[in-house]
Every structure is written in structure tokens, then in C-alpha cells.
Design brief:
By secondary structure, this protein is an alpha+beta fold. Helices cover 22% and strands 37% of the residues. Strand 6 and strand 7 form a beta hairpin. Bound molecules: zinc ion.
Length: 139
């Protein structure tokens, strides 16, 4: 596992929070992306070498909507960059972690992602993400 790739923050109103976090960081988000399969609309900020992701639910049964209902707005997950997500999934399963998506999914910001259930990691939802490399055969 490499560095922290980003920290995800669940918000009720992405537009309002984009304004708030722009003031906090002194700069605008660099992209907005909706991941329809996950029921989220996300925005990303660069803060130095760090990245912050804001997440708003796009539908009432979205995991983000459920999170906010239970816990309110706030830090939702910590994402770690990995080189080989499939190898990490195998390794972490063997270590006893509960992997939510054994087959990694396409996430926001050009990543393959999976999550570890917070019950197996002291209440912290962990995201693993691997940058999707465009190879010539995909073009
Ligand atoms: Zn994330």
C-alpha cells in the first residue's frame, strides 16, 4: 500500500460545500464527476500534494445518503493508492479484512476501486484505488 490517495468527505449539498472548501483551501475544485453506479456526485480539490474528495448522494438509497442519515456529514473514507489492487484484495482478505467489492469497480478520477468494510478496520471505511493506465490496446 502506498500513500494516502485522498480523503473522502460526505456532504449534503455539493455546490454549497464546493464554495465552503474553496474558501478553506483558497482554490477551486479541479473537477466534478458523477459516478452513477455508486449514486454519488464528487468533486476534487488538490491541497499541496494531497487530495480531498467531496461526495454528495445522487439518490436516496446511495451509500452516501445512508451514511449522512446515520452519522451526519463528515469524513467518510480514507483512500490509499495501490499498485496492484487485485493482489492487495487477496492479501487483505487473507489478513481477515472484509473486502466489499472483490472485483474492483471503476470509481471517480480514473481509478479502479474497492472498499474494506469499516467493521474490519476499527470503524474506518478504507478505499483502495489503483490508477487506470491507458494502454494502447484500449485506444
Ligand atoms: Zn474516494
Amino acid at each position: 500500500m502506498n500513500k494516502i490517495e485522498h480523503i473522502g468527505i460526505a456532504v449534503k449539498d455539493l455546490e454549497e460545500s464546493n464554495g465552503l472548501f474553496s474558501k478553506l483551501f483558497g482554490q477551486l475544485h479541479y473537477k466534478i464527476e458523477t459516478v452513477e453506479s455508486e449514486g454519488v456526485k464528487t468533486s476534487f480539490f488538490n491541497v499541496g500534494t494531497n487530495k480531498i474528495e467531496l461526495l454528495e448522494a445522487t439518490k436516496p438509497d446511495s451509500p452516501i445518503a445512508k451514511f449522512i442519515e446515520k452519522k451526519g456529514e463528515g469524513i467518510h473514507h480514507i483512500a490509499f493508492d495501490v499498485d496492484d489492487i487485485e493482489a492487495e484484495i487477496k492479501r487483505l482478505k487473507n489478513e481477515g479484512f472484509v473486502v466489499l467489492n472483490e472485483i474492483p469497480k471503476k470509481g471517480a478520477d480514473n481509478k479502479l476501486v474497492t472498499f474494506l468494510h469499516p467493521k474490519s478496520s476499527n470503524g474506518v471505511l478504507i478505499e483502495l484505488c489503483q490508477e487506470i493506465k491507458i494502454t494502447e490496446s484500449d485506444e
